[in-house]
Write a structure and sequence with these properties.
Helices cover 49% and strands 11% of the residues. It is an alpha/beta fold. The strands form 4 sheets. The protein has a 5-stranded parallel beta sheet, with helices on both faces. Strands 6-7 form a two-stranded antiparallel sheet. A two-stranded antiparallel sheet has the order 8-9. β4, α7 (221-233) and β5 (237-240) form a beta-alpha-beta unit.
Length: 470
């Protein structure tokens, strides 16, 4: 029987070969189809092709092809593809200049080639990722897993294992008699209980299991050593699930601490100076371009219609909680009648304070566009947790222990929560808690390409309209 680890290795080799073939096909097409005569390869194309292959293979050693990994996200695929493309072009031009007599491509031709390689490999990788996910959803390439223990964290592990797109097959769980069970997150049915804590050794001895997830302490050191020995013998990978419920949606990070390893509560990519500079530079350039090009025309249209349809100022400004818990003035196009409750009462469906023109602006996100000024000033980012009014910060920070974590990054015009169903009125504390969970997920999983993904999703939502935008 081929183990899950061996299947993953062979699949990794296969997708790397497909990726390499895609690169070569694109490179050859640009030459033989004459699509890009600007590259000026001429009679030295054989040299360019050889160097290109050497450069691409080296680039793949530094940035691995990972779209076949279970739970891989499109943003991660785009991030790896962009890094591979940039590393390829740097190596490609360097090797040509140092080791060959061929003409070194100019800046524009190198930029164009980088874009072509990035575009082609992105389409290939995302297409293969979708194909693999569909295969795994019907039981192909499945990883057999069992869970030891029950509870909130064990259920969250089961939610991943029972999601068919990830390609796992949850065989069941072991727990003490009377402990709460585990539910299949897709079907809603109970997952099979395979026995008590003492039965796991017998089960592993008779059945092949690829992965074991441990969510509780064992009775004694002897039991633990015997379990590990049995797992090693059966080639079963073991993973430890934190028992603490407080860290349920944390992206923990392992840190070497003397001669032991410790686990941080969560990780923040934007604590890295390079990532913060990258995000700020992107925010500044995009907001400046928007304000200098499209914004004046939008401002003129909004000004004329607003003055015709409702009295009062064009802009609405409100103090909101921003980065590191600091207050700032947030700007919007005014969509409500002037009222005394604007700083304390949230907009609701069919809110009488919202005008017809204001409802249109809210439905299409036009009312949020002045926040590009906040982005340019540095109070906000293009993407991040949405800033809340001060009254909401005071209220929810007392009820939700993790609420203030969302202020570890700058607030955004749009965010992961808003593009994943958590927009509009928060009728209950649980509504806000779900939004906070998604905000924290964004903080812990930030990448440049995740921001791009969220921005495209926001544009698509604005075109189609959002029923929760009121």
């Amino acid at each position: 029987m081929i183990s899950a680890s061996d299947r993953t290795f062979k699949l990794g080799v296969l997708v790397s070969v497909i990726d390499w073939l895609t690169f070569n096909i694109v490179f050859l097409l640009t030459y033989y189809c004459g699509c890009f005569p600007y590259f000026g390869w001429g009679d030295s194309f054989g040299t360019y092709l050889l160097v290109a292959n050497i450069a691409y293979v080296i680039a793949l050693q530094f940035v691995q092809v990972s779209f076949h990994h279970r739970q891989s996200q499109p943003a991660k695929v785009l991030n790896n593809t962009s890094r591979t493309s940039v590393m390829f072009i740097v190596l490609y031009t360097s090797i040509i200049g140092v080791f060959t007599d061929a003409h070194v491509p100019g800046f524009l031709s190198s930029l164009l080639l980088t874009f072509v390689v990035f575009l082609a490999t992105t389409v290939e990788r995302l297409s293969l990722r979708t194909y693999l996910m569909k295969l795994r959803s019907v039981g192909r390439d499945a990883v057999k897993a069992v869970v030891l223990g029950t509870g909130g964290m064990a259920q969250r592990v089961a939610d991943v294992l029972t999601n068919g797109w990830n390609g796992y097959r949850l065989l069941g769980y072991f727990s003490r008699e009377g402990d709460p069970g585990i539910v299949n997150s897709v079907t809603g049915e109970a997952v099979a209980r395979l026995g008590g804590l003492d039965d796991i050794l017998d089960y592993l001895g008779k059945n092949h299991v690829d992965e074991l997830y441990i969510n509780r302490n064992l009775a004694g050191v002897g039991d633990f050593k015997e379990l590990m020995k049995l797992c090693d013998k059966g080639m079963t990978r073991v993973f430890y699930v934190p028992a603490t419920f407080y860290g349920e949606f944390r992206k923990a990070k392992v840190k070497e601490f003397g001669d032991v390893y410790v686990l941080s509560q969560y990780d923040e990519p934007l604590r890295d100076v390079r990532n913060r500079l990258k995000k700020r530079l992107f925010d500044f350039i995009v907001s400046l371009l928007f304000i200098c090009t499209l914004f004046p025309f939008i401002l003129l249209v909004v000004y004329v219609v607003s003055k015709i349809t409702m009295p009062g100022p064009l802009f609405f400004k409100q103090k909101r909680t921003g980065y590191d818990g600091r207050d700032f003035w947030c700007y919007k196009f005014r969509s409500m009648k002037v009222n005394k409750d604007s700083d304390t009462v949230q907009a609701v469906k069919d809110d009488p304070r919202v005008t017809k023109w204001g409802a249109f602006m809210r439905h299409t996100n036009i009312d949020e566009l002045p926040q590009f000024i906040n982005v340019l000033k540095g109070d906000m980012s293009l993407v991040g947790p949405r800033p809340h009014m001060l009254a909401h910060t005071d209220y929810y920070s007392e009820l939700i222990s993790d609420y203030m974590i969302r202020h570890y990054v700058k607030p955004g015009i749009t965010g992961w929560a808003q593009t994943h169903g958590e927009r509009g009125e928060t009728k209950t504390v649980d509504d806000m808690r779900r939004r906070v969970e998604k905000d924290i997920w964004y903080i812990e999983h930030w990448s440049f390409w995740l921001d791009i993904q969220i921005m495209f999703k926001t544009i698509a939502d604005a075109i189609h309209g959002d029923d929760k935008a009121y």
